[in-house]
Amino acid sequence: MTSARLSPPFWRRDAYVLGKLARHVAYIAEKFHNGSSIVRLVQGDTIVDLGAGAAPYRALFERPEIRYVTCDLDAGAQVMMSSGKPVPLHDHSAKIVVSFQVLEHVWDLDWYLAESRRLMAPDGALVLSTHGTWPYHPHPTDFRRWTRDGLMLELTTRGFIVQEITGLVGPLAWTTQFRALGFHRLLSAIPVVGSLLAALVCAAMNFRMFIEDRVTPDEWTNTNAAVYVLVAQKNDTVLP
Predict the structure, then answer these.
(1) pLDDT tens, 129-165?
(2) CA 15, CA 188: separation in Å to the nearest integer?
């Protein structure tokens, strides 16, 4: 699972989107490591992954001298979470809190973002990605999609300063992505040859998405993205 998200095969139905997200997360992580971002990771720092699942981007952040802690509702995480209850970790215990493709599955945003903020060190950061436009995908629930402005407001009204936000995969490409997901589902149901046909169609559509994103203006993608990725810090003038 981890390697598939970091480097998805080109015939996978969502390979283009996953690949673009992985590259951007890698870019953010490298800036934390080399000190060119708002936060620099140093020996002894802790990263907390809220809603980690299989922690697909762990390898991008973790180092021998940096602790990476996974938190989730499911067994298997290092720390078990319960919706509406404090995560059993100390205040300010994380230099960086990361949340990848989790927020759309959370009903209680006040609880989730308050816990993210509580766990962050005063000079720490939040790295969060979620969907702007995407099909329904419960895991086990699926509640929301965001505009760029709406996502920023969710954070700023809950005591964060959004330092950067990037839209990934513009509307020309994500309309193709929707068709790829549909064709994959239909073709995969065909006996014997269905999986091969689905892989061929998805590979062609992933290439098409690459071309479509190349010709889509950045300002259009930034306000009409399939995925938004942001980096935020605490705003202590708004909340304690």
Answers:
(1) 999 999 999 988 999 999 999 999 999 999 999 999 9
(2) 16
